[in-house]
Write a structure and sequence with these properties.
Layout lengths: L1 H21 L3 H21 L3 H29 L11 H15 L4 E2 L5 E2 L2 H15 L12 H6 L5 H8 L4 H10 L13 H6 L1
Antiparallel strand pairs: 1-2
Helix pairs in contact: 2-3, 3-4
């Protein structure tokens, strides 16, 4: 398992470099292909030949390929549920991505002394101060689970308890991996499940 992890770790910078080279400027590539396609079509009107037709086919192929890739990238970045039917929804995915980035930000925080903080630097300082105060301190009391209340809720049968302790089989791992959506990332390494299914 460690060797697979090391190989994936070595592969990640190469995939990032490939991503930067090929996919970072997708919109520019699409715009360039559109301009080139229009130019070729104008030339075909004035001087029709097989070479121009071949060029038109090649550029048309690019115009079909790059918008699909752009949509896929935006879909992954937005992590929105994708309806498989319908046309390109780049505005939708851009809006979802913007919304996700907004949700990740802490714009307002109430400090321990009751002060309302709006400044980014003050918020960072307050968070650091809070967690530094927790380091090295011991809790006065540790709340425990009340067993009587737990017994009132749903409980596992003896058979279910045994199943929980059973060895995990390779078949269960395989089935679990196959049940995850292709665009989901199972871990922090960023490799989606489609990558693992095909590897």
């Amino acid at each position: 398992m460690k060797s697979i992890w090391l190989k994936l770790k070595a592969l990640k910078p190469r995939l990032k470099a490939l991503n930067n080279e090929e996919f970072r400027t997708i919109t520019v590539k699409i715009d360039k292909a559109r301009v080139e396609f229009q130019y070729i079509q104008e030339k075909i009107v004035t001087q029709y030949n097989d070479y121009l037709l071949d060029q038109e086919k090649a550029v048309l192929h690019q115009l079909e390929k790059w918008p699909l890739i752009e949509e896929s990238v935006l879909k992954k970045m937005s992590r929105a549920k994708w309806i498989k039917l319908g046309d390109s929804n780049t505005k939708y995915f851009s809006a979802i991505l913007k919304e996700r980035n907004q949700k990740k930000q802490i714009k307002e925080l109430i400090s321990l002394d009751g002060q309302n903080l709006n400044d980014v630097e003050k918020i960072k300082y307050e968070i650091m101060k809070f967690y530094k105060s927790l380091m090295g301190s011991a809790a006065q009391t540790l709340p425990a689970i009340n067993r009587e209340i737990m017994k009132q809720g749903p409980t596992l049968s003896q058979q279910q308890r045994i199943q929980l302790c059973a060895e995990v089989t390779e078949q269960e791992i395989f089935e679990g991996l196959q049940s995850i959506g292709d665009d989901k990332a199972p871990g922090v390494d960023g490799f989606n499940t489609y990558f693992f299914k095909k590897a």
